[in-house]
Structures
1.
Amino acid sequence: MMNHSLKSLCKVNPGTVILGKWHQKKYMIVKELGFGANGIVYLAEHKGKRVALKMSDNGISITTEVNVLKSFAKVQGSSLGPSLIDVDDWLNNRVSVSFYVMEYIDGPNLLSFIGQKGKSWTVVLLLQLLKDLETLHHNGWVFGDLKPENLIITGPPSRIRCIDVGGTTIQGRAIKEFTEFYDRGYWGLGSRKAEPSYDLFAAGMIMINTAYPNRFSKKAGGISQLREAIRQKQELIPFERVIVRSLQGGYQSAKQMRDDLLALVTNQQVSDNAPEPSVSKQASFNKPKANQYPSRKTYKKKKKSRGWAETLFILLLMVCLYTLYIMFRN
């Protein structure tokens, strides 16, 4: 948590000018965008351009987040997070406050966008998200605090962007920040170890969240409550296998989950080791292949041929028996 005295130093009013101690760049605060355990994010202006400025009393946290953004910048064509613009300190009442400046990503968050455009966008955006998560995980990070509020839709063309990298954690360590509804530890379905499956659990919960915009409280917890929530929403039922598998830690990579989700959309069979399919889905797997059974015309033709063969065999047998009778009689 932020120290209250230092938090007051980070709390500034619109119109305040932040002057960087080292780079001497000026940023005028426009409004507060959000706050968390590790700092406050502001909308600011620099030379007529809008930027996002985050300041914190925790210099280590700032350094970590800057390193994450630098790592993102090394990924060609990636839109994982905002681009880093500046890192500096600000002297507020002779106390040094660390801050960094990043690209300001404007647009509605995931749930707001789907509410405006329709539920058909859910899978499109989740496929984009999983592709970005695969890149993030490949570079050794886990997003951690993955939730709709941290996913902004820009465009056109519509594109999902990840913001607020404060919860991003190096794989193998303990998750730094989380929101209970998207946290597998809260639901009793896994640890808070930073690994790809932690983010994929959150991705599954985000899919559930699109059908329950106000979320819901944990009762018994566990997979039973979540599976029941899925089955109560018609739009989630087609994706039950993928969602449940993500909640149970069945995916080792975002690519696996993305491939299965894409397979369901294109009416293909999902990968092995997925949860058991529903009865209707299982029935479809047992349908006979084309031409497995003969047509009526072919069947009649084959039956007629068998009839002639049987008649000929009987005639030959009778001739043989009659010949033997004559031989033994004489």
2.
Amino acid sequence: MSIESHIAELGHVLPQPAAPIASYVAAVEVNGMLHISGQLPFDGDVILTGRLGDDRDIAFGQKAAEKCGLMLVAQMKAALGSLDRVERVVKLGAFIASTDDFTDQPAVANGASDLMVAIFGEAGRHARSAVGVPVLPRGAAVEIDAIIAIRQG
């Protein structure tokens, strides 16, 4: 079964890859690694916004992180042509808009981490950072970037 068929079997639909909103590219492939710029949590055409610990809870943050993860996978497909070229998810960097006293960033980031494992199996297990920030572009609740090892050829 292809990765794309597996994603559909999981009940997910990959979004259209988002275009960069400033002076950068969505993904850069170098030396067998794909570096993907930070992706925002799109739900259709709407960005999931808010701050964890203020107007948003952990469940909302996990949904936003999962949406970021789906956008990362869409960017992988756009850059590589086929998700079957993904050898391993190496690292995710999760940025969570949150209040000073909110400390559950790792639980929020699990929305994306769990998705990577669901899609790619053991190859989806990765290193990760999850940090709180005061604000993200467009008021997004979460932004996540990634480093992916790719198969050549």
3.
Amino acid sequence: MANGPSVSLNHKLADYFHLRLQELGRRQSTPPQDDTLWYIGDMLARFGDSDQLFSYEDGRIDIRPLALLYKDAHETNNVRERGLILRQLGDMALFIGALFPENYQRRGLKKDYFVGMGGGAYSYLSETELQHRHIFAELATRFTRILELIAQACEKQTAFDDGDVLTLYQRWQKHREPRIAAQLRALGITISDTQALH
């Protein structure tokens, strides 16, 4: 079994993410369904393998833009292939939108872009797929909340040093994300949502 250790590691990683998502999900007024949390945990473990996230195109390794995945899905006449592409689109929108929002904000892509692309893909899947329809429906209708949940689940778990706190504060000043504000407050930093940008 050549790929045994890799499969075992992905399974353990999926279990870790599921437990973390479950713990954080309980804090929401309406916690996500457990099936949805398992799906997300599996997705995070899958994208932990760079081969699942990156593609080789035009002589370089890169993440395929969501707009091109949407174009691929729109242009195919094969219903099964369209479903697979849209699932990849939804999963990548969740993963990238939750974990790398600043990278894409610098390119002019805001949270609404990920919500529209990912939510739309999952909405289509909730109406057309034979399996996991209830999961896709929840991901479509609660996409923004799920983005925040994934971001929280993947936050740094070790102690922050002074440089980390300063970097986090500078990120909050620039982007004003509630998640970053909550992290700062948890570290004992008093901030106000109305503080002026410097």
4.
Amino acid sequence: MTINVLYLAHDLSDPAIRRRVVMLKAGGAAVSVAGFLRDANRMADEKDVPVRVLGHTADGRFAQRIAAVVKARAGLARHLSGLRRPDVIIARNLETLALAKGARAQFGGSVPVVYECLDIHRLLLDDGLKGRLLRAAEGQFGCSASLLATSSPAFVEHYFKSRSNLRLPVMLLENKVLDLEAHPGLWPPIARPPRPGEPWRIGWFGAIRCRKSFAILSEFAAAMDGQVEIVIRGRVSPKEFPDFERQVAQAPHVSFHGAYRNPEDLSRIYGEVQFVWAIDFFEEGLNSEWLLPNRLYEGALHGAVPIALSSTETGRFLARRQLGLLLSQADVAELVRRFEALAAEDYLSLFATLADTDRSIWAVGHAECQALVRQLAALGSTTAPAEAGFIIPSPLQSEG
């Protein structure tokens, strides 16, 4: 039986929203989307998915986003009018969790709600009044939710168990690559050491919002004087980088190639680099320490060796599997030392270990999409899990 999912999206411009909708559809669900918009609407052309724009928000403007949520809540009946009654509502991030109760009321008040939280905003971790108010709001908005979906066990350990007011069963939903084509012949990937005279290429792809990463990588590339090239692709945060093109132009051996299609372009863009930068300082010491980023899974699936800090959740994830180029500290001196000593045979050894992993660690296909939809469908039955803090075992989880 097909289930109907209403997906409340924090940003219809985010490629991850489209990926989740495609995943739900591939699992057999019928999906409607209502969400906020910050840039071009990536859901506008998605076939058989009704999309309602709730309003416009701006990156980094927290007060403006609160005002947009209040306005959307007042007009929710109008925005949701004509949509099919959902069997499940998924609320992505806190701003749409604030709308979930109102959306639920529009359809009779008994629809299960899933809170999907894949990042922990720094204000939620604030020890002052702002943080306490936000955590109280999260607890209030999510008190009647049935399930929390999050992407890293460290988010559960360091926030949801210890700081959040929510007490919900948890489903681990990692940021794995959605690969519905699943051509087995493409795995394992093929090694691509640089030709004689060519540089090592490090890809920094995805959400480009970390000024510290840019500073380290650009200084590192300059210090290596042509032996290393930094290739940047993705969505650049205008708040963090108001003059990004000028900064790139002034950085030797650093190039920016704009946005890309996900998943359509992943094989090509990761195939052009030997390494992927899987380090983030955007919320250093907090969210950045705990996340398992999209680029980790994307890079590894396509044969790009991850570079990570050993002290982070990403570093621990890789260390358990003896993968990647792990750094004790992410600074220019450490990178120069490691890459000046890097020989082709060292890279080939790192690559071979990566290529020997199980593909399911990095990607999900139709079977995992169907498992997700089955778990969502079970929320409306008496068999749905109810123990707070329980991470639901499922085919969506990797080994270890």
